[in-house]
Amino acid sequence: MPSWYRRVKIHMIYRNKLVMSFKGTQNWKGEREAELNKSCKPISFFVIQIFFFFLVIDHLCFFCRHCSRMEEDTDFRIRFSSLCFITDHVGFRGTIKSSPSDFIVIEIDEQGELVNKASDKPVYKVTKVLPEPNNLAKKAKLDLQILSFEETSNQEVSTLAGSSSEDHNFVPCSEMEDTIKDRTYKGEEESVDVLGSLLDEKTNELLNQFACDIKEKWDSKTELTGPSPEFSLGRILDKNQRATLHSAIRQKFPFLITVGKNCEIVVRPNLEYKELCHLVSEEEAFDFFKYLDAKKENSKFTFKPDTNKEHRKAVHHFVNKKFGNLVETKSFPELSDSADNPNVVITVRFRVKAHKHWKRSLLECQGRKDTYTAFTLRKENIEMFEAVGFLAVKLGVIPSDFSYAGLKDKKAITYQAMVVRKVTPERLKNIEKEVEKKRMNVFNIRPVEDSLRLGQLKGNHFDIVIRNLKNQINDSANPRERILEAIENVKNKGFVNYYGPQRFGMGRKVHTDQIGLALLKSETVKAVKLFFTPEDLDDPVNRAKKYFLQTEDAKGTLSLMPEFKVRERALLDSLHRFGITEEGCIQAWFSFPHSMRIFYVHAYSSKIWNEAVSYRLATYGSRVVEGDLVCLDEDADNEQLPSSKVHLVTEEEESANTYAIHQVVLPVLGYNIQYPKNKVGQWYQEVLSRDGLQTCKFKIPTLKLNVPGCYRKILKHPCNLSYQLMEDHGIDVKKEGSHIDEATLSLLISFDLDASCYATVCLREIMKHDF
After folding, report:
1. Which of 46, 123, 393, 757 has the most other CB atoms within 10 Å of its CB?
2. Which domain holds residue 575?
3. Cα–Cα distance for residue pair 216/213, rounded to 1 Å
């Protein structure tokens, strides 16, 4: 055996001893000399000193890496162990996710059906039948504008008004009648019919009353004080129906705007319409908004002749400030007027470039509609984005052609609804065998008319096995009694509705919320480097990531990155094309579908929400105090609470104990939320300042990301909860040199949770144990 080999072998012996015991170097010296005397030829004292020096350096480096990894994992555990509990039972210990089959997740669709059951139903809900296409012909030009908003964000805003109409089914309001009764345009009957067909009678009446109240206040010169009044039409799940409603309301009430958020349509006063009425007659304002809404190419709109130059300047300024990206204005003298006091007209026309971005009409879209195929995806121990990437490659589409209602766990067997665009059912069925090799299955394959959206589900059903059940340390109570007590307690009192650790990349060096924060601060290069931060593992993926950070060689890294890492390869391919500059990294992030880009930003918002809940419960406990936000709709979905249903608690309501803790909500960060008016609201502002987001608008135009925010209940309850204790026999337990057969307890627990609730968080409350 060569002497160099023996020396390396001794080096590894000492290194292993360091890993196992972390003893001081003084204990190694005698062992080292004995090993040298036994198996090595004599070597010079100088060589020994050099060898020992590098040995210690290597040990220190390994020790630092090991401690760094321990510190990262500990930091992650600390983040979640510091979260609060709402119940006061002792709990118990156990192991979850021993295998994927121990954690089964089945999505529940909006009709309350489990998606793993055979079904011929579409995956979207139609509340009412749309009018026949010929009834929509005169409104088609209006529908497109709203569709364009929906494709780029969750927030759809329509500020352009159309033609108005008199509602024959509405008790007349004198002021409103006097203003718009004389303006009857062709097609107004269709808007009345559309509203009547899509809205129930009560909602239609309330909408008309809301419009009448707004018009009365404006005509009486009464200023609207406080927040802008609004009226909610509720959630309309079908995208085409929402577009039609937006158009019909603008046609009937040009002094109102419609705002869409998470499929809810909210009606508000159109302040731009009111502002223009201060400059021109209401008739001109009405016709101008109708012109804008028509978007007829090469058309012009002319205001009435005006001799006042300052007044014309004010009209020019208003139109260009509000609609300058769509239209341009010019003044022309009327030929028949005298040169001393000429009448001048302001002419408005559309900018040529604006037409390139207009959406096709609804009828054109219907005529050239994409193919949509719905299916149920079963996957086992595979990340969802990896599964989507694999399916995209096999079907010859891109990941953004897939839509889904929610993300699912990796280490689990999960069932979820999906829709793929540009793929026929027959084509999807042809790859069933290939998909099975990847521990996936596709079934319930059927054609549908539209894609899915995030949150379009009722919830999830869980079947979970918790193994190796034990009492908490120093707890001598009967384990069965402890388990029964814990389950009943959470069943009755609920659990703190935290976002689960899997949302942040549990156990990783860089968590998804850190990438989200970088994106919110428009630090796209930093976000890319965070994404490629390697773990302390020696495998092809982490070697490729390490190479990229050291060299910024996207092409070389692409050759090292394994094929199954679809996201990493897509990002590297874009970086190779566009370069690792700020602009290049922006383009690279577009290699991810919108749902994936927004996922990172949502992860940051989720982290802040978790911290906010802990602060809220630590500060006020289970009392509902002045300045809290509460939900007035007991049946509202998690994170789908309309703003009109969120109420600020007053001092009188606190004294009267009007609300309970399960009604309290906290905002998830975004541009369209209000904060609590107490210490919790102050805490939000301090945290945003801490993270450098005090001026953040939660809109990232360069990445086409808009984050409107939402409200989330701080407590949730599991539904349909059932459980069964089982004994696992045949496990060898070593005790005092002998082997005995001992039975260990396992718990099979099943329950349903609302959308965006986490089973691991519910189990944490039950077990009083962090995973």
Report:
1. 123
2. 534-592
3. 5
Among 426, 457, 488, where does a domain finish? 457
- Catalogue the E-assigned strands of 487-576: 495-496
Mean pLDDT of successive 10-residue segments in the chain (771 residues)? 42 40 39 44 48 49 43 44 82 92 94 82 39 32 31 35 35 40 44 71 85 80 66 80 82 82 82 84 84 78 85 84 81 59 80 50 52 95 89 88 90 96 94 93 94 90 94 88 93 93 76 93 94 91 94 94 88 92 92 88 95 95 95 73 86 94 94 94 96 92 91 94 81 39 79 93 91 68
Whether residues 390 and 444 fall in one domain: yes
Residue 144 forms part of a structural domain = no
Tell me if 126 is assigned to some domain: no
For residue 409, indicate whether it is catalytic.
yes
Task: State the Cα–Cα distance between residues 470 and 94, nearest whole angstrom.
Answer: 6
Whether residues 541 and 562 share a domain: the answer is yes
Return the percent helix, strand and coil in the chain, to nearest 5.
45, 20, 35
Instruction: Tell me which residue of 359, 408, 303, 343 sits closest to 141, measured CA to CA.
Output: 359
Residue 266 makes CB contacts below 8 A (sequence gap 6+) with 230, 231, 232, 233, 258, 259, 260, 642, 643, 644
Query: Are 431 and 408 found together in one domain?
Result: yes
Q: What is the dihedral of CA 352, 357, 359, 365, to 10 degrees?
A: 110
pLDDT of residue 243: 82
Clarify whether residues 721 and 759 are in a common domain: yes
State residue 352's pLDDT score.
66
Task: Give the count of beta carbons closer than 10 Å to the beta carbon of residue 353.
Answer: 9
CA distance 273 to 259: 15
Q: Are 391 and 429 within one domain?
A: yes
Where does 156-234 have alpha helices with state H?
Answer: 174-180, 188-198, 201-219
One domain for residues 405 and 443:
yes
For residue 409, give the CATH number of its domain: 3.30.70.3160
- Whether 378 and 447 map to the same domain: the answer is yes
Quote the pLDDT of residue 263.
77
Select which of 143, 167, 287, 409 is catalytic: 409
What's the CA gap between 1 and 554, in Å, rounded?
44
Examine residue 94 and state whether it is found in any structural domain, yes or no.
Answer: yes
Q: What is the pTM of this model?
A: 0.60
Q: Which pLDDT score is estimated for 637?
A: 65
How many other CB atoms are there within 10 angstroms of residue 572's CB atom? 26
148 is a domain residue: no
> Is residue 182 within 8 Å of residue 283, measured between CB atoms?
no
Residue 93: which CATH number?
3.30.2350.20
How far is it, in rounded angstroms, from Cα 657 to Cα 624?
A: 7
pLDDT of residue 549: 94
Q: How many domains does the chain have?
A: 3
pLDDT at residue 235, as a whole number: 78
Q: Give CA separation, 473 vs 132, 331, 479, 481, 601, in Å.
A: 68, 84, 12, 16, 39
| pLDDT of res. 213 | 84
Q: Which of 395, 430, 457 is the last residue of a domain?
A: 457
